[in-house]
Amino acid sequence: MLSVCYSDTKIEAGCDEAGRGCLAGPVFAAAVILPRDYSNEFLDDSKKINSNTRYKLRENIENDAIAWAVASYSPEEIDEVNILNASIYSMHRALDKLKIKPELLLIDGNKFKEYNGIPYKCIIKGDGKYMSIAAASVLAKTYRDDYMIQMHQKFPNYRWDKNKGYPTPEHKIAIRDFGVSELHRKSFNCNIQLKMDF
What we know:
The termini are far apart. The relative contact order is 0.22. The protein is of the alpha/beta class. The protein is built from 6 helices and 5 strands.
């Protein structure tokens, strides 16, 4: 059972990212402020629920949240600042877009950098513990999936409509056969993937 709030009084924004472990495409992040009495029996870590449920939850979250926002960091930016920083900075960008200023940030994971002096709490596997982080995970995941499905139309060889840029065997084979695209993260040295067993 997910908890709604970490604090008894503060306006909380949950933050999470999607796409950190991918070989291609941006990293996406979301920030969500939910009502203190929010309830949704289906809300959970986005990795634990199927695609259809995620998209239904996205609609619920966007309708029910006090405020929400989604932002991203491009492959070029990831290569420039590294994937950890890109994940954090994409959360900052999502927070920039919130229409209400939070008083406490709940961050999924164990790393973050101060944002505008707002107190924050890093929570390992927080997307399975707090509703606002779970909601952020759903938004980040679905918006990133939408983007990668769209990019599949431009780069069909990599089957991003299926693997969303993650290092699946078919994606590695496509890199071997067709090389890397402009959406691949150069700092990830995708060619190393070719040395792995398929």
